[in-house]
């Protein structure tokens, strides 16, 4: 029933207006799945390779499609993803492109679910999933590579850890987002939005901390449950490897100072989540910071681990973090992403499922988070391509997918 009979690939627009790859997978019994690849701006050096979409599509049509059509079963995700690896033949998907690979991998999963008549999260995670929901990390102020003339730290995130339901959590994040706008207006700070829908004001990090902290306490009082505060520092983007320093607009910090700075922020703002506080090559500095504050907060590796089990094994051996960001397009297939999630969970690392700064209306990551019982999902707070995933979580909770 799930034998793949057709794979179609096309270029569509992503949220930045750039082309990306969309895949349709059709099965023998008429099962259908459609998925699209997202795209990063602050990409990790060790990510699988995204090729220009027209090249990725041409290469996948030539090498991958013949290994899938009439050959692989959409219901057998490992087989589909193994065929993609075999078609590619490299260890970083530089032949068919991680963008073609991930679009096909996710579309096949949806086609498999369609044949079964089951929601995607259930097809991926089994009959007993769907009881627990991830806490959404909502990006309310941002800068770095996602917006010009804004904060140095890439993302100021809110985490409604005390929300009684995923719906309450999603609405709380949107309320913090609009409260931040009110506070910016009170201070006469004009601002637009960055790539992920976060406000991108021309203020320094210190002021952003003040504003987000205030917005969080206002909304917390309003909703009556606990809302935490987190960051994606995107440390690799701040790091100058020649000088060995982290370059902020107002000053430089060497690695020890960076560790101390982040540890102080964790204590001052009671941060529940800190992603990529340090450079993507510096496992030791990650380990030092984790030693210092890992019992109070999540230290999450994004560019550090790039959803790659080899890099995660090294991180586990060296005590580099206690959490891993999971982005299927960083590694190219759902199988690889699942393997990273399983390895993380077995070793006490919390998996956090994540969007990219360039996104589409695709909702696969909402299902992936529920399928794997992930404690957090990072997928913005507002903006159509972000709310597509958040609204899908609400639908999953309402049994309406
Ligand atoms: O750094 C990140 O975590 C992501 C998503 O927020 O950004 P990008 O997709 O640009 O890598
Ligand atoms: Mg990141």
From TrEMBL:
<feature type="binding site">
    <location>
        <begin position="354"/>
        <end position="357"/>
    </location>
    <ligand>
        <name>substrate</name>
    </ligand>
</feature>
<dbReference type="Pfam" id="PF00113">
    <property type="entry name" value="Enolase_C"/>
</dbReference>
<feature type="active site" description="Proton donor">
    <location>
        <position position="196"/>
    </location>
</feature>
<keyword id="KW-0460">Magnesium</keyword>
<keyword id="KW-0479">Metal-binding</keyword>
<feature type="binding site">
    <location>
        <position position="378"/>
    </location>
    <ligand>
        <name>substrate</name>
    </ligand>
</feature>
<comment type="function">
    <text>Catalyzes the reversible conversion of 2-phosphoglycerate (2-PG) into phosphoenolpyruvate (PEP). It is essential for the degradation of carbohydrates via glycolysis.</text>
</comment>
<feature type="binding site">
    <location>
        <position position="302"/>
    </location>
    <ligand>
        <name>Mg(2+)</name>
    </ligand>
</feature>
<dbReference type="InterPro" id="IPR029017">
    <property type="entry name" value="Enolase-like_N"/>
</dbReference>
<dbReference type="Pfam" id="PF03952">
    <property type="entry name" value="Enolase_N"/>
</dbReference>
<dbReference type="GO" id="GO:0009986">
    <property type="term" value="C:cell surface"/>
</dbReference>
<feature type="binding site">
    <location>
        <position position="302"/>
    </location>
    <ligand>
        <name>substrate</name>
    </ligand>
</feature>
<feature type="binding site">
    <location>
        <position position="155"/>
    </location>
    <ligand>
        <name>substrate</name>
    </ligand>
</feature>
<keyword id="KW-0456">Lyase</keyword>
<feature type="binding site">
    <location>
        <position position="154"/>
    </location>
    <ligand>
        <name>(2R)-2-phosphoglycerate</name>
    </ligand>
</feature>
<feature type="binding site">
    <location>
        <position position="356"/>
    </location>
    <ligand>
        <name>(2R)-2-phosphoglycerate</name>
    </ligand>
</feature>
<feature type="binding site">
    <location>
        <position position="275"/>
    </location>
    <ligand>
        <name>Mg(2+)</name>
    </ligand>
</feature>
<keyword id="KW-0324">Glycolysis</keyword>
<protein>
    <recommendedName>
        <fullName>Enolase</fullName>
        <ecNumber>4.2.1.11</ecNumber>
    </recommendedName>
</protein>
<dbReference type="GO" id="GO:0006096">
    <property type="term" value="P:glycolytic process"/>
</dbReference>
<feature type="active site" description="Proton acceptor">
    <location>
        <position position="327"/>
    </location>
</feature>
<keyword id="KW-0964">Secreted</keyword>
<dbReference type="GO" id="GO:0000287">
    <property type="term" value="F:magnesium ion binding"/>
</dbReference>
<keyword id="KW-0963">Cytoplasm</keyword>
<comment type="pathway">
    <text>Carbohydrate degradation; glycolysis; pyruvate from D-glyceraldehyde 3-phosphate: step 4/5.</text>
</comment>
<feature type="binding site">
    <location>
        <position position="327"/>
    </location>
    <ligand>
        <name>(2R)-2-phosphoglycerate</name>
    </ligand>
</feature>
<feature type="binding site">
    <location>
        <position position="232"/>
    </location>
    <ligand>
        <name>Mg(2+)</name>
    </ligand>
</feature>
<comment type="similarity">
    <text>Belongs to the enolase family.</text>
</comment>
<dbReference type="InterPro" id="IPR020811">
    <property type="entry name" value="Enolase_N"/>
</dbReference>
<feature type="binding site">
    <location>
        <position position="146"/>
    </location>
    <ligand>
        <name>substrate</name>
    </ligand>
</feature>
<dbReference type="InterPro" id="IPR000941">
    <property type="entry name" value="Enolase"/>
</dbReference>
<feature type="binding site">
    <location>
        <position position="275"/>
    </location>
    <ligand>
        <name>substrate</name>
    </ligand>
</feature>
<feature type="domain" description="Enolase C-terminal TIM barrel">
    <location>
        <begin position="130"/>
        <end position="400"/>
    </location>
</feature>
<dbReference type="InterPro" id="IPR036849">
    <property type="entry name" value="Enolase-like_C_sf"/>
</dbReference>
<dbReference type="GO" id="GO:0000015">
    <property type="term" value="C:phosphopyruvate hydratase complex"/>
</dbReference>
<feature type="domain" description="Enolase N-terminal">
    <location>
        <begin position="4"/>
        <end position="124"/>
    </location>
</feature>
<feature type="binding site">
    <location>
        <position position="357"/>
    </location>
    <ligand>
        <name>(2R)-2-phosphoglycerate</name>
    </ligand>
</feature>
<dbReference type="GO" id="GO:0004634">
    <property type="term" value="F:phosphopyruvate hydratase activity"/>
</dbReference>
<feature type="binding site">
    <location>
        <position position="378"/>
    </location>
    <ligand>
        <name>(2R)-2-phosphoglycerate</name>
    </ligand>
</feature>
<dbReference type="GO" id="GO:0005576">
    <property type="term" value="C:extracellular region"/>
</dbReference>
<dbReference type="InterPro" id="IPR020810">
    <property type="entry name" value="Enolase_C"/>
</dbReference>
<dbReference type="InterPro" id="IPR020809">
    <property type="entry name" value="Enolase_CS"/>
</dbReference>
């Amino acid at each position: 029933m799930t034998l793949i009979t057709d794979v179609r690939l096309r270029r569509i627009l992503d949220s930045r207006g750039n082309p990306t790859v969309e895949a349709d997978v059709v099965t023998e019994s008429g099962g259908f799945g459609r998925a699209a690849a997202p795209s990063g701006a602050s990409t990790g050096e060790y990510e699988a390779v995204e090729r220009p979409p027209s090249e990725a599509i041409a290469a996948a049509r030539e090498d991958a499609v013949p290994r899938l059509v009439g050959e692989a079963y959409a219901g057998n995700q490992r087989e589909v993803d193994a065929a993609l690896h075999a078609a590619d033949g490299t260890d970083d998907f530089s032949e068919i492109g991680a963008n073609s690979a991930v679009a096909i991998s996710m579309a096949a999963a949806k086609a498999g679910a369609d044949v079964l008549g089951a929601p995607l999260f259930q097809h991926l995670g089994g009959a007993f999933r769907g009881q627990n929901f991830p806490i959404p990390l909502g990006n309310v102020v941002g800068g770095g590579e996602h917006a010009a003339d804004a904060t140095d730290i890439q993302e100021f995130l809110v985490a409604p850890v005390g929300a009684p339901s995923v719906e309450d959590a999603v609405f709380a994040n949107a309320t913090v987002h609009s409260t931040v706008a009110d506070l910016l207006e009170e201070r006469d700070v004009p601002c637009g939005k960055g790539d992920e829908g976060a406000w991108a004001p021309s203020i320094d990090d210190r002021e952003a901390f003040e504003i987000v902290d205030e917005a969080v306490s206002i909304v917390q009082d309003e909703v009556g449950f606990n809302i935490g505060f987190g960051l994606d520092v995107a440390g690799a983007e701040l790091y100058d490897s020649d000088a060995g320093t982290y370059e902020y607009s107002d000053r430089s910090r060497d690695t020890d100072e960076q560790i101390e700075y982040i540890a102080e922020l964790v204590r001052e703002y009671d941060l529940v989540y800190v992603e990529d506080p340090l450079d993507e090559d510096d496992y030791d500095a990650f380990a030092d910071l984790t030693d210092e504050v890992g019992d109070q907060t999540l230290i999450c590796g994004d560019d550090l681990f790039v959803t790659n089990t080899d890099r995660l094994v090294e991180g586990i051996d060296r005590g580099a973090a206690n959490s891993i960001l999971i982005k299927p397009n960083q590694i190219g297939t759902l199988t690889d992403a699942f393997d990273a999630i399983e390895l993380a969970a077995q070793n006490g690392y919390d998996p956090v499922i994540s969007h990219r700064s360039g996104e589409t209306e695709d909702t696969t990551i909402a299902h992936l988070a529920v399928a794997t019982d992930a404690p957090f999902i990072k997928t913005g707070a507002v903006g159509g391509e972000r709310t597509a995933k958040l609204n899908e979580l609400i639908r999953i909770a309402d049994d309406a997918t």
